[in-house]
Amino acid sequence: MAQSTAIRGCVPTVILAVFLLIQPSISIYCEEDDCYDLLGVSQTANSSEIKKAYYKLSLKHHPDKNPDPESKKLFVKVANAYEILKDEATREQYDYAIAHPEEVFYNTARYYHAYYGHKTDTRAVLVGLLLVLSGFQYLNQWTRYNQALDMVKKTPAYKNKLKALELERTGGMTNKKKSNKQINKKVEEDLSKELELQIKGAERPSVWELIGIRFILLPYTLVKLLLWYGCWFWRYQVKQAPYSREDASYLTRRSLGVPSDSWRYIDESSKEDLIERRLWDKSNMESYREEMRKESKRRR
Ligand SMILES: *[C@@H]1O[C@H](CO)[C@@H](O)[C@H](O)[C@H]1NC(C)=O
Fold first, then answer.
1. Where are the domains of the chain?
2. Which of the two residues, 28 and 133, has the higher pLDDT score?
3. Cβ(273) to ligand 1 under 6 A?
4. Which of 33, 96, 212, 292 could form a disulfide with 134 if both were Cys (CB 3.0 to 4.6 A apart)?
């Protein structure tokens, strides 16, 4: 169930990615026109012919001389065609795309490589990529979160809780219908809030989890980690201090391989019990495992 939800969440992402890649690969050059036709030259024209044709056309359609809006459009198109054909490398790419229209992916990739590789800073591309990824991530998180909420709201446990809360609020009085409805709404809101704290696996979406934000915070995170590690080393390796409750809890959780989310939901006395066993010690862990094995055999 959880898996199918996750798959449904990523479908729009995949569709968009495929759409971006399958754009007709020739039309990325001169849109619906042929770049050579725009300049009025043949595909075998040499570079000086192309240059001459471009200067002639750009003079003819220049917006200063020709106020016609159609002419302005043509001016832009011609300039774009010349951009592509004046450069040996992009012209060769374009010729290849004409000759092999079926190699959609290859042509598109080459076009974007030539285009963005030259003209934009890799840093800008990286920032753009992080932004897009973070956007998708955020949408996906919300979709999953809302699906989880909807599912929980359909369970009998939730409905019963809602009823109990309702009764508590109204004090069993059911004669004033109008105010009742208002109260119901309020109760439902409160319960939703409470629920939000309880749903495991689908945490409430948080901007701090986004790839982009994480990337920006990376230096801070690294420094924090380093400090934490340094303190740990100083306190427990150098000064040989006994583990604090919090750190003992962390060590226990880690030696058991329990994710921090799940650890939060274990009740305090069980945690205390586990911590006292000092499971981060290998021998203690082994004896604990042995005990568990015997326990499960006994149950069977
Ligand atoms: C390009 O072609 C024209 C006409 O065919 C010719 O006169 C000219 O010398 C050529 N230029 C180059 C650089 O090959």
1. 2-119, 124-209, 217-299
2. 133
3. no
4. 212
